[in-house]
Design a protein that fits this description.
There is one protein chain. By secondary structure, this protein is an alpha/beta fold. The protein has a domain of 142 residues: Nucleotidyltransferase, domain 5, CATH 3.30.420.10. A 5-stranded mixed β-sheet has the order 3-2-1-4-5. Strand 1 and strand 2 form a beta hairpin. The C terminus is likely disordered. Its EC number is 3.1.26.4. Belongs to the RNase HII family. It catalyses: Endonucleolytic cleavage to 5'-phosphomonoester. One of its GO terms (biological process) is DNA replication, removal of RNA primer. Pfam families: RNase_HII (PF01351).
Length: 203
């Protein structure tokens, strides 16, 4: 039986879990979400979005939105990723999500080992936090569902890259699509210039 995820890391009354998705993609924005749950909230089914089926993620998305004290989703665009690099763009998306929360959180728990912000809110970085804390798991689900849905919609506009299944990650079909059709306005140019060069030499 799966061990239930922990609730709050801190003793603060309003603690927000924060996570991002899409850092390793060749196309699309990096998306972050932040979630504050009430103190008495419990859900044995919440887990890291990568460990859940699409159906489970969609059902939990509704549950999270109905039960959270506050939640927010934000992104940093491919152009911003190219300008400030993917790590800083991830931090930017996280900060944008946090800024939308109401009430304002008193403490943040961030998935991963690094975070940079000019917000004056104390925080702790937690490696594999989406497998340890309810609010981070919830943030990972909201971010993934939002980003996946957006990339699937874009696949109808740009059908050559397999975004309906790879949602922008560097699969074989995506790489072949870039080699044969070039890149779109949704591609991250700093990621794709070296990839296109590699594919040309492989032909």
């Amino acid at each position: 039986m799966k061990t239930p995820l922990s609730f709050y890391y801190s003793d603060f009354a309003l603690e927000a879990g924060v996570d991002e998705v899409g850092r390793g993609c060749l196309a699309g924005s990096v998306v972050a979400a932040a979630v504050i749950f009430p103190k008495d909230y419990k859900n044995p089914f919440l887990n890291d979005s990568k460990k859940l089926s699409k159906k489970d993620r969609q059902e939990l998305d509704i549950e999270i939105r109905e039960n959270a004290l506050s939640f927010a989703i934000a992104e940093a665009s491919p152009a911003e990723i190219d300008k400030i690099n993917i790590l800083n763009a991830s931090f930017l998306a996280m900060q944008r999500a946090i800024l939308q929360l109401n009430p304002v959180p008193e403490f943040l728990i961030i998935d991963g080992n690094r975070f940079k912000t000019d917000l004056e809110i104390p925080y702790e970085c937690i490696i594999k936090g989406d497998s340890k804390y309810l609010s981070i798991a919830a943030a990972s689900i909201l971010a993934k569902n939002y980003r996946d849905d957006f990339m699937i919609k874009l696949a109808k506009e740009h059908p050559h890259y397999g975004w309906e299944t790879n949602v922008g990650y560097p699969t074989k079909k995506h790489k072949i699509g870039i080699a044969e059709h070039g890149i779109t306005e949704y591609h991250r140019k700093t990621f794709n210039s070296s990839l296109q060069l590699d594919l040309r030499f492989q032909k």
